Amino acid sequence: MWKWLHPYAKTERTYQLCQLLLPWFSVFGLFIIILAAVWGLAFAPTDYQQSDAYRIIYVHVPTAVLSKSLYIAMAVAAFVGLVWQVKTSFMAMMAFAPVGATVTFVSLVTGAAWGKPMWGTWWEWDARLTSQLILLFLFLGVISLYKAFDDKQQAGKAAGVMAVVGIINLPIIHYSVEWWNTLHQGATIMKLDKPSMPPEMLWPLLLSILGWILVCGAISIQRLQNEILQRDLKRPWVVKLAMNEHVSGDKE
Amino acid sequence: MQALVSLLKRDLSLAYRQRAELMQPLLFFVLVISLFPLGVGPEPKTLQLIGPGVIWVAAILSSLLGLERMFRDDFSDGSLEQLILSGASLSGAALVKVYAHWITSIFPLIILSPLLALFLHLTEPMYWALLKTLLLGTPLLSLIGAIAVGLTVGLNKGGMLLALLLLPVFVPLLIFATSAVEAASMGLQYNAQLAIIGAMLLFSLALAPFAIAYALRVSQN
C-alpha cells in the first residue's frame, strides 16, 4: 500500500518531486496571497467595533493556524524518520522547522500589535498568546539541538526525538495553559466575542490562509531542495545536475 | 535483572562518593529561594502568594543543574558504551539511572522543602499540597530530563541547550503543581491536579525509558 512512497527515501527522487511541485506552490501561493491581501486590506468592509484595526486578522490568523500545522508537519516528518530510518525525512523536518518558527514569531508579533488597540496592552497573558510563545520555544529548541551537532545524520535523529516529545506535549501544554488562564484572569480579559463573520470578510481570510499555506509550502520545498543538494554535493547526480545547469546557462 | 541491580548499586555508591557535587544543586535551590524575599520584600502575604511558584521554578532550575551529571561521566569514561554493548536491556538501565538520579539529587530537595515552606510562610495545608506535588512531579523532571540529557551528552556545550529543550516541556507540570498548592491555600480540593500530574508521570514512566535508550544510542552514534 505504501510502496509508492519508498522511492522517495532516495534523495534524488525527492529532489525531482520538489522540482515538479515548486512552481505550482510558489506561483499560486504568491498570486493568492497578493489577491487576499489586497482584498482583505482594501476592499473588505470595516468592522463596526474594531474599525480598520481588525484587518490585521488577514496576517494574524493564517500565521497562527500555520504555526501549529507546521509543528505537526515537522513532528510527522521526524516520526517517519525515526521509525523507518528515512534520512530524507529528517531533511524535510529541518526544512519545516525554521519556517514554522518564523511563522509563529509573526503570529506573536501581529497578535501583540492587535492586542494594543483592542485590549489596551501589548502583551496579555492570554491563553492563546502564551501557548503560542511556548510553541516558539519548542521550535527553537528543535532547531538549536539540530545546529549543535556537527554530524547531520546524528543531528536529525536527536532533533527528531525532541520534535516527537514536543508533539506529545503540545496538547497538554495547550490545555494546561488554557485552564491556567481561566483560573487566573478569566474575568479581567476583554475577550472579544467571536461574531460569525460576514462572508465579505471571511472569503479574503480563507484565501489568505490558503495563500500562506502555499507560500510556506513553497519555502519549505525550496529549503528541502537546498538541503538535499548540500548534503549530496559530491554525489554523481548532483554533479551532473550542476553541469547541465552550467551548460544551459552558457547557451542563453 | 542482576545487571540492573548492580548498576543501581554502582550509581548510588558513585553518588555517595561525590557528595560535594551533589550538594551544589541543593545549595542553589535554597539560595534562589532565599533571594526572593530579598527581591520582592518580606511581606508574608506576598511571599505566600508567590511561594508555590517560586519553590517549583527553583526546583525545576536546580534539577536542570543536576541532570547533566546523569550520563556525563559515564559517557566520557566509556562505561555508557559498555552498557549499550552489554546486552542488558538499555531501557531498563535508563530507568535505573533515572531512579538513582532522582533519589540522589532530587529527593534531598524534597527533604529540604519544609525549611523553604517556612521561609516563604506557606500555611500547613499549602505545605502538604506542595509535598504531594513534589513527590509526584519531580520524578517527571528526571524522566523527561533524561531524554534530553541522553541526546545532548555527546555535545560539550550541553548546559544551556538542555534548559532550552526542557523548560517549555515542563510548563504543564509547573501549572498543575502550583495550582494544586494554590487550591490548598484556599481550602479547596486539589485531587484533580494531583491526578493529572500522576497521569503525566505514569505516561512518561511507560514511554520515557525507550526514548532515553534511543537517545543514548543516537549520542553514541
Give an overview in words:
The complex is a heterodimer of chains A (252) and B (221). By secondary structure, chain A is mostly helical. Chain A contains seven helices and no strands. Chain A has helices at 11-43, 57-84, 87-119, 127-148, 152-185, 199-231, 236-251. Chain A is globular, with a radius of gyration of 21 Å. Chain A starts with 10 loop residues before the first helix and ends with a helix. The relative contact order of chain A is 0.17. Chain B has 221 residues and is mostly helical. Helix content of chain B is 85%, strand content 0%. In chain B, α3 (44-67) packs parallel to α7 and α7 (124-152) crosses α8 (158-166). Chains A and B meet through α4 and α5 of A and α7, α8, α9 and α10 of B.
Set down the secondary structure blueprint.
The complex is a heterodimer of chains A (252) and B (221).
Chain A: H1 11-43, H2 57-84, H3 87-119, H4 127-148, H5 152-185, H6 199-231, H7 236-251
Chain B: H1 2-17, H2 19-40, H3 44-67, H4 72-76, H5 79-85, H6 90-119, H7 124-152, H8 158-166, H9 171-185, H10 191-220
